[in-house]
Amino acid sequence: MNGWRHQQARLFQIRRDPAVAGDRYEVTWGCAGSPDAEMVAYAEGRGTDMPDRLVFYTDRTMSWVLFVVRTSPFPHSRDAVHEVRDGSGAVIGSFRATFTASPSRPEWTMRQGRALLLTGRERGTLTSALRHAWDAFPLFRLPQTVWSSGFDFTTGSGERALCVDRARERHGGHVLDVASPVVDRRLAIAQAVALDSLWSR
Hints:
Blueprint: E1 11-17, E2 24-29, E3 38-44, E4 53-57, E5 65-72, E6 81-86, E7 91-98, E8 107-112, E9 116-123, H1 125-136, E10 150-154, E11 160-166, E12 174-178, H2 185-199
Antiparallel strand pairs: 1-2, 1-12, 2-3, 3-4, 4-5, 5-6, 6-7, 7-8, 8-9, 9-10, 10-11, 11-12
């Protein structure tokens, strides 16, 4: 799949469809709701949390593996590492969450090979703090759209490489904007799905 023709695409729409057996993820290229939007990745998980192994296919027929996300030692571990491999088993990259900087603003570290290292931080300090405070002492359950926010992933020099924005409409999913031509789109999609799992808890 090294010749995957969407490697230079910029905008992706990621939608999660809750189901009895487990969540389904559909990734389309192009503007949401547009008749020209094209499905580029599809996965079926178990529950709303990131499983220890999630396989993404090129479409709903699940005939061709696009990439696989493996999590170790286990998904809920604070030191869990999510490794992304292509259909042949070759490593694309990895990412992990860290909570040492601030308990209310988790950071993500994304690695691709030896040359690319990105740091993802949640946009909106106040929104993040309020969301985490509400999660700790909820008076009643609020839909996640109330806490709509986004993550920006930047290089060591501060240049933004990609961003993930939580759509405000119900079941709107996420919009993934990959500005850097160097970032592997499969790794970026996997990271966006992990953020969806974080926001869905």
